[in-house]
Amino acid sequence: MNVPDELYYAKSHEWLRRDGASGTVGITDHAQHELADVVYVELPEVGKTVAAGDQICVVESVKAASDIYSPVSGTVSEVNEALQSNPALINTDPYGEGWIFRLTTEGDQAAETLQTAAQYREQTGGSSKEGSSGSAGV
Amino acid sequence: MVDFGGWSMPVQYSGIIDEHQTVRTALGVFDISHMGQFYARGPAAGAWLNLLLTNDVARLDVGECQYTFLLNERGGVIDDLIVYRVEDASYLLVVNASKIDEDFAWMQSRLDASVEFLNCSQEYAGIAVQGPKSAQLFDAFFGGKYSRPARNEILTIMLDGAVFHIARTGYTGEDGFEVFCPANRAVKAWQDILQRGAELGLKPCGLGARDTLRLEMCYPLNGSDLSPERTPLEAGLSIFVDLQKPDFIGREALLAQKEKGIPARLVPFKMVGKAPPPRSHYAVYKNGRQIAETTSGGLSPTLGEGIGMAYIPTEFARIDEVIEIDIRGRRLPAAIQKRPLYRPATTVPVATLVL
How many CA atoms lie within 13 A of B321 on its CB side? Predict the structure, then answer.
């Protein structure tokens, strides 16, 4: 399973890439593997303001709809429109072309509340049951 | 792995869509050991079953099977099952995993003292092989020795001292077999099937594909599409109910419902235009008013569209009628369809359409 070192991870299986005052969010390789076959992504609205841990959008696989939570507080600045026509990008490239949204953030929340790659590897390294309990519906 | 009726079951192996398409085009194998097996034996067994089940057991010859219902006094569905007449006075009943205890207790408390009635669910395993290449797999195993049972028929054979029932039935709409054998023989049988099936493109399939395959065929899932509050007439499955039979539990209630008018019908629908897939328990609207809740839903891998089923008030339960499904607060249009939503390339006779 791929867990890039430079990203931050939420317990609910979202990743965050810090880039100054903004951050990019997607779901992890582990999460996409557990969901399998992503068939629909309901993207958040640009301009929407969210708090860390808020449900922000929905990723649907064949088997279930799963809520996605914002790993940090901020305002949605951009969404990945390519997922509308090709939701499977989340499966094929979860940390690249399968990104879901960008948001502008205040302060460096990531370091306080999110896990490092090593911690996330530990979280998902246990039984598959434990690993699948985070993202709703997985 | 997920819990399903107390069993730990795989949702998927290679992926739901991949497994689904493998069953539609080649061959898939499912572990169905969670299903329950009862035997009813003795000269009076057929007549006794006929008092509990909706279809006419007397119409079965040895080696034949039928889809049928176990109803409560109100005509509601306790379970849907298949009855196989394996010998002249011996019937095998295959019931839903989550209903094994309830079905058995219900039947046991109404037992004819001369009938031997056994719950063999723990001792029996089940394996379903489904797909257009299933005949080839059968021949690879038994070619020249046994001929394939016809649709809705069952072959009972001894293999190294153990009884194997091989039925030409299934829950996918494709041609195929369901094999029931002693649990201690199942692992070897599963491995043999995987090995011999490999050259036919066979893949193991989980509960996820089992659900998408049956939903495309509009086969009901008990607990979702069937319930003790709904009759088989509402579920659109009256061809498996023989109201000509003089008596069976639920008959009076069904006759009364027929007389009074059937209030709702279980119908399949398809989302219109681009929409997220519907799921079970989504509200259904018509003319601004909630009229139903979906009982099943998902993405059809074959059609690439969202599909589902719901009990729609009879006045709206017409093909092409447009209803609205509430998906996370948005009411999106869907159109009622004829069943099945997908017709397999291999022709399926009416009797298996709702197995």
Answer: 17
